[in-house]
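Data availability (excerpt). The following record was deposited with the supplementary files.
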Amino acid sequence: MQDSDVINKNHYALRQSLNFAQMQKETKESMYNSIEIRNLTLQGRKQNVNDLKGPRPRQKT
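Predicted structure:
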């Protein structure tokens, strides 16, 4: 086996691991974005429910 073959195989393996790491990073970012969107959606729903209820009547003491 020649040195160039070894270099090519190492280069290929390195590219594959970099691609995998990039994919993992993008997956993690996507998950965080999904969670953030979900939290904002839940906040929005809570706000909508409060708007529908209207102002709270005063408690009579």
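Summary of structural features: The longest helix spans residues 3-53.
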